[in-house]
Amino acid sequence: MKNLLHTTCLLAGLPLTSALASDFFVSPTGSDTNNGSFAQPFASIQKAANTMFSGDTCHIRAGTYRETVAPPRSGTSTLPIRYQAYSNESVIVTGLDLVSGWSLLSNGIYQCAAPTEVTQLFSDGELMVEARWPNTDTDYLSPTLALVDSASMGAYNQPSTLTDAGLAPFPDGHWNGAKMWYLPGSQWGAGSTTITSHSGNQLDFLNTSKVSALQIETNSKYFLYGTLNALNVQKEWFHDAGQLYFKAPGAANPSGLSVEARTRRYGFDLGWRNYTEIQGLTLRAATITMKGEHNLVEDCSILHPTPFFDAAIWQGDDGVELHGQNNTIRRSEIAWSWGDGVSLNNSAVSNTVENCLIHDCNWGGGWSAPIRTLGTGHAFLGNTIYNSGRSGIRFQKATRLRIEKNHISHMGWLTKDLGAIKTGGTDGLDTVIAYNWVRDHNSAAWCTGIYLDNSSTNHIVHHNAVWNFDNGIRMNKFGTGLYVYNNTMFNSAKESMAHYAPGGETYDGVLTYNNLCTTGPFRGTDLQNNLQDDPANILYAGTEHGDFRTLENSTAIDYGRNIPGYTEGHAGAAPDAGAYEFGGADWIAGIDWTPDWNALPIPAFTISGTTFDASPSTDADGFIMRYDWDFGDGTTAYGKTASHSFATTGTYSVVLTVMDELNGTRQTTNSVTIGAAPVVGIFNLGTDLFMESDGTKHDTDTLLAGKPQSGTNVLDSRRAFLQFDLSALLAEPISNAVLRLYHIEGENDTWGNAQIYPVTSNWTAQTVTYSHPVGSSLGVLVGKDGPFNQYHEMNITPLVQSWQNDLSSNHGISLRGAEPFSLTAKYFQSLEGVHPPQLKITYATTSAGVPVSEAAIEPQAIPALTWFSTTEAYYTIERSTNLVSGEWLPVGSAIEATPPANTFHDHSSTNAAFPLFYRVSTP
Questions:
Q1: What are the pLDDT digits (tens) for 377-399?
Q2: Contact 186/180 with Cβ under 8 angstroms?
Q3: Which of 261, 276, 311 lies at the terminal end of a domain, its last residue?
């Protein structure tokens, strides 16, 4: 710890501040009577908060902290107060408390004392269901609901009734005093009321809405809750009058389970504190609130921020509360909320939600949203938002907003007549909605991509891609001062641009320019340069996977008009119609990171003549949105398939990059040879081992680098050394050298990168030491996300060229992990493994004969050759392990041509000595 003593002074009008910034530590194994040093940490974050002043940092060790942290002091602009996970350890701040003292009530229902209100219950980490009828699971966006057979509604707050034959099996009075959640006839949003009496198939209750469209009617959906009588199946619970009731999974006695009850709403309550930073924490069944200024939340996971609440017409409930000014939440995941993901109230000013993953919100089906905002001057930038009971970003009476580069999908799971981005009755004061991807909905009816409801004024909507909605953009009656430029709308089931005006109401000052769609109409008072055309003429890169960049010869190219401030820098003679400019700057919406739980896509492609086809690419838990090509000759392309001809002979590395809907990105490379084939050598003989800091060496079929155990001691790491036998290296110039290591999943491979270092002096298996000297890192071979069970490649051409110039300088490479951090182990197969390390060397000189394309080596290290073939030709394949001796072994003969190309797999090479050389000839 740098300093534990604060020097303070009292000056009129000045706050207390620390003379020197200090570091404090918190650990579940600590004590609040300690001094907060690394060796003597506090036990609670609150104790650290009470001790900290401006510039201080609280380092939180791994563990679970059951508390609401309420800092008593603010930081300053130059000396913020910071709460952060220590060394990327897993820190959980939770609103849950452990529950014990269970006794059997009846029918598998247990009870215990719980004097504090319980709003959520977890068993062994799994969310349980608050007792309700009909029974359902925790898929709250697609729950089991009852249907009203008939309804008779009284005036507001007056007695009303409904009937449902499904109620008849229950005895009279069974549901007296229960609560009812319901979706009204319009299904705009949920409400709730209390059952005053139950008899047979009839429920009596009070009407809670003055608007007929928001009242219960025939076929309205509902469920009953708030009574012990609803608790009848496993995983259900109920709390009332200081007692908690629970029917555990598997009919178990909950005393043998880890049962946690939510008794606190907040993990951090910053109140009016300023300049406070929270980094790298997980908040579980807890949220964050702030009313101050210049606070920052980053790299956090905020899960189950909002518990169930009684729904109310036109209302929702808060999630993460950004209620102050100039506060920011970024690069964080917010998920599984009965209410909002992020909430900004009417007094909030200039807050930012940036680069966040916000999903599975508004389980209650009310007016909540992943982002729900009032206030002014906010920026919602680069967020990925999916799965909501109603809208994605909802703003009303909010002004001067920037809603840009968000990726929003799958809204409307529970309600109707909504927008992925929605406002109404609002003067936006030049609110900007731009460069968003808005796609796919789950609403039963009338779901719009961008929805400017009645009396929306002064909004600018430009360069958005909107697809697979009932309406792409909707501007309802009394819309004024709306500017709709360069939007792409595709697959609108009703209309691309819709307008609700039952009394013939008209727009005023609605400019609609340069928009692009496949189905009309366009709406506005001034329509210019809007293009409606067939997809075959527009030539999108891939509508089936959401790539709305246009291809060469698209009718959208140069179709638009200049719009000052919005179309500058266009690539052609005039701006294009639509959201993307052909040949112009590309843009991608959504987060620029990928969550740990996302399975990365697997790229793969085939080559047939001039056609490059990425159809073999897959994504296990989603879908691929982008396919981008780099042909290695200075040209690029995009789309699942691409056509390309190389202008000159040579060998080109063609790189395919794929990206899924959560920004999971991965590349693959195949080599294409135009003209005579190069000589390629594959080296996989030599010496390798890994060792511990105490000198213990391991010569097995595995190479280990990094730390396989937790803690901060860098000497817990392992280091691997690898040296290839290059005695068969040719004297011909080397054009390319690629190191290939096969990454396998091992224990405690959870974080960090594996890097390659050149070894700078000679060593043997007997003489090498843990601290053997190495040069600067050549780069990262593989990161924390893997992938596993495949080869990873690194181009080390300059290093191998230096070895060729002086073979005595070949001291090999060292493989090392992120040594200062916990659990960073990376495992690879060694030279003794089934998939040994390989050094793949391509020589600049070429062999005579048929032009050959050398394809990627298969996982089993079986060489594959592809060459351009001609009709009625036959080919012979020969293999050599030593070009100097000139000995060639036939491995394939009389191979009939299959134009435009043939492929040959040398399965006989399994036991052959490396390196291997091949030549293709015609008899």
A1: 999 999 999 999 999 999 999 99
A2: no
A3: 261
